[in-house]
Protein: Calcineurin-like phosphoesterase domain-containing protein
Amino acid sequence: MKYFYVTEIYHRTAIVIIMMIRGHIPIHPNAGDELALLWNYADVLNILWEFNSTVLAYIAGHSHEGAYFYDEKKIHHLTLQAIVECELDTNAFATIHVYKEYLIIQGIGRINTYRFDLLK
Structure:
């Protein structure tokens, strides 16, 4: 599996300057409930850290309360709050607005709003 991640990131690095990765399960211990972490999260983190100049953020779900952490390699780890925890009359979604120097994840309802600078 590591080969797939590395090959895909190398391929994307040749095409784009900055990328975000989306996965269902958090990969950093400070970005969600420890019980909700990917079992081999350390392996995946090490791969992303190899490409920290290209990887801007890892966005996950799974840990229903949500969390945010900016790690020592300057990668944002965002775990979005779960819609299944909403009251019946509440929403939980977000829109990403990309600008030249930053992006905004504009949360609606249960989801918080975040700003990520694109320049590391």
